[in-house]
Amino acid sequence: MTERIYLSSEILAGDVEVIDCVPRNDGRYSVRLKSTLFHPQGGGQPSDIGWINEVAVVHVAMEEGEIIHQTTAPVTQGNAFARVDGELRQLYSRLHSAGHLIGHVVELAIWHPIKAHHWPGESKVVFKAREDAQNVSAEDIQVICKNFITEDLPCKVTQRDDGLREVSFGHFTPYLCGGTHVTSLGQLGDIKVQAAQMKKGHLTVYYDVV
Ligand SMILES: [Zn+2]
């Protein structure tokens, strides 16, 4: 099983060991690493992209329990140098962390987050009403989010003994999460809550970071 360095470190470039590299049916190559800096697609967050040596890594996915790096050309077994596209990673971490923040803020109005999708241009968090759930508007959510961004609440990651990982911002109750995050909410910059749509006991909050 590939060690997931991205879970405990923000490091974006370093030495890795290529275990194997096999051609795929789609013309790409499947590369397994002993340990990886790349966040695979999942948990509502897109895959990192980048390079192993000079070969492009165009997608990273969990396939049959293994982290598979899809490359455009073969890479040789043994030691290699890996780099994650840092600009995209930062955008994905900001969008994902903004989803956490919206989750915390809307929970204050007694809604329970059930689903999240943190992709550029289509980010949203879906909530289910609890008893006594209060009406919330996009404007309210945005104002409260901005207050916490100004407070620059720090991200805290706790690796539990059972293998799960808890991620919290400031005083909020942690979420179980395997994604990547900003180190504090100030890095989110400006958050734009585009809409808060209520339908059949569900509330969907659409947002972007700018
Ligand atoms: Zn997360």
Automatic annotation (TrEMBL):
Biological process, per Gene Ontology: tRNA aminoacylation
UniProt keyword terms in alphabetical order: Aminoacyl-tRNA synthetase, Ligase, Metal-binding, Zinc
Pfam families (UniProt xref): tRNA_SAD
Gene3D superfamilies tied to this protein: 2.40.30.130, Threonyl-trna Synthetase, Chain A, domain 2 (3.30.980.10)
Protein name, UniProt field: Alanyl tRNA synthetase-related protein
Domain Threonyl/alanyl tRNA synthetase SAD, chain residue ranges per copy: 167-194
Single GO MF annotation: ATP binding
Species classification: Bacteria, Pseudomonadati, Pseudomonadota, Gammaproteobacteria, Enterobacterales
Cofactor(s) it depends on: Zn(2+)
